[in-house]
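I need you to check the entry underneath: sequence plus fold tokens. Let me know what the token row says about the fold.

>
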Amino acid sequence: MTYQKIYLIGFMGAGKSTVGKLLANALGMGFIDLDEEIIQRHQRSINAIFREEGEDVFRRYESELLKEFSVKEGLVFSTGGGIIGSERNWQIMNSCGVVVFLACSWPTVLARLEGSSERPLVNQNDLESLKALYESRQELYRRADVQIDVDELTPEEVVLEIKQKLAQG
């Protein structure tokens, strides 16, 4: 079974960008990293957008891009970790593609985010607040069509798992 669009969702550090590039290549599809697209279009880092305009404006930019790209076909998307907070975003993703949740345990998230200064939510929150955010999003992430537990897998193994689950329909 082929899909016109595949949306990778999950918490920061789950590997959405890395896996997305590999998956797009493996399937002969294009790749869109929504965060990178926002950076290019607005000529500022995600950190700067969060600092200068706030998270709500960033989320609006993200939703606008999601809608814009929803008319294109043959794309794999790496989404921001909070894209799942909007019902409108869910409607867009579900109407034209398959949503894949890259599930990652809290200890794995911590290990992967160690030393990260590029993520505004890491910069703006203490570990307790970040963990609360992680936990609050889990139920939303589980609405995805497919879930892949990525803790013990290499990015290449994650791609194989996704391909297998998509082939099963």
In short: The CA atoms of residues 101 and 141 lie 6 Å apart. The longest helix spans residues 55-69.
